[in-house]
Design goal:
The protein is of the alpha/beta class and about 375 residues long. The protein has helices at about 35-45, 60-65, 100-105, 110-115, 130-140, 195-210, 215-220, 245-255, 255-265, and strands at about 5-10, 30, 35, 50-55, 80-85, 120-125, 125-130, 145-150, 165, 175-180, 185-195, 230-235, 240, 280, 285-290, 290-295, 300, 300-305, 305-310, 315, 320, 325, 330, 335-340, 340, 345-350, 355, 360-365. The chain starts with a strand and ends in a 9-residue tail after the last strand.
């Protein structure tokens, strides 16, 4: 293969509030049965990239547990494979990852031992499908130093939480601003990059010598006039889950038939770690409308326009509307949930009411167990 993959999955995002207090963003559950990182891993596997490194750091326990067997994404092989790297204290380095560039620098030996000429860098917190080989062919055809995958945001979407860029008629990036206060363009970076391996090593080493630690600010933006940095624009579904509202919207998108068909029925497939759970059970009197209900769940009440993850118990006379119920939640009888995200391994007492009236409400009522 011509490329090696790096998935950056170690960052902490305070915009997800309680949801990331005990788990990494890349470990966030998606669409009933998946984790956010499954999409990047599946894209790597479907693009026949045989060697992939995942860089983890913040609250990585559940993420590392999810990645403990590489066979689910077809990386269990003698040649290549899936590598999970966490910060390591050495005689020369006593730091955690201080940024995305520093995370790559601390694992630079991995890149130096590789023989593939190119590197594909992506984040672990986006939901999308992509054939990285098409981007690589574009990168080679343009004779680019770095290629940035980008897309245009829909009207009304908040562009200020992304990197904003402008390109000329040849798709070369002329302006790049990271998370500006005011966005002067609706074209954003998706956090997917292609670069020649030897060049990446040189740029990372040079940044480390100058105590620069961020890949976007200290490499992409700093070198935009010195290196040939091109944009590759995509049109297909792509969503970043880095805020509570974005996470809620992304899961709700899977209630749309066209999105479900795109991810669940159209090839290539999205893969995830499989658990041995029975099918969802709908007891007499259960009413379910336009919802995703994952395996291991038991439904006694009413569920409308909601996503229920694995092992959710819905008690008698419960009503769940426009909500996301994460893994292993027990909802007592006569509970009313609307416009909420209920945290994993939670127990919601009977005869209670939780409604997100001014946005999405994160419910943690009795969370005594570790959120997986």
């Amino acid at each position: 293969m011509r490329a090696v993959g790096i998935i950056l999955a170690g960052g902490n995002n305070n915009k997800m509030r309680e949801l990331t207090q005990r788990r990494a963003v890349a470990a966030m559950p998606i669409a009933g049965s998946y984790r956010a990182i499954d999409f990047a891993l599946s894209n790597m596997s479907n693009s026949h990239i045989q060697k992939v490194a995942v860089l983890t750091q913040y609250n990585a326990r559940s993420l590392n547990e999810h990645l403990n067997s590489s066979k689910w994404w077809d990386f269990g092989r003698k040649q290549g494979g899936l590598y999970v790297f966490t910060p390591t204290i050495t005689a020369d380095n006593g730091y955690w990852y201080r940024g995305t560039a520093d995370a790559i620098y601390q694992n630079l030996d991995f890149l130096k031992r590789c023989h593939e000429p190119y590197v594909i860098i992506t984040s672990g917190d986006a939901v999308y499908k992509m054939d990285y080989n098409k981007v690589l062919e574009y990168h080679i055809a343009k004779k680019a130093d770095i290629t940035v995958v980008c897309r245009d945001l829909d009207q009304g979407e908040d562009a200020t939480r992304f990197g904003i860029l402008k390109m000329n008629e040849n798709m070369r990036i002329e302006e790049f601003e990271e998370k500006p206060m005011v966005a002067n363009s609706n074209t954003i970076s998706t956090g997917i990059y292609i670069i020649r391996r030897r060049q990446l090593i040189d740029l990372i080493e040079h940044s480390a010598e100058e105590d620069r630690y961020d890949f976007v600010t200290d490499i992409l933006i700093r070198y935009k006039n010195l290196k040939k940095i091109y944009g590759y624009k995509i049109q297909d579904y792509w969503s970043n889950i880095s805020t509570v509202d974005a996470y809620y919207k992304t899961n709700m998108d899977f209630l749309k038939p066209e999105v479900r068909n795109y991810f669940f029925k159209q090839l290539p497939s999205i893969y995830s770690k499989v658990t041995d759970l029975p099918p969802a059970k709908y007891n007499p009197g259960a009413v379910v409308k336009n919802s995703l209900v994952a395996s291991g769940s038991i439904i006694n009440g009413t569920v409308e326009n909601s996503v229920l993850f694995k092992k959710v118990f819905v008690g008698n006379n419960c009503v769940i509307k426009n909500s996301i119920i994460l893994n292993d939640v027990y909802l007592g009888d006569n509970t009313y949930i609307e416009n909420c995200i209920v945290e994993s391994r939670d127990t919601i007492r009977a005869n209670t009411r939780h409604v997100g009236e001014d946005g999405v409400k994160v419910v943690i009522e009795k969370n005594e167990r570790y959120a997986l």
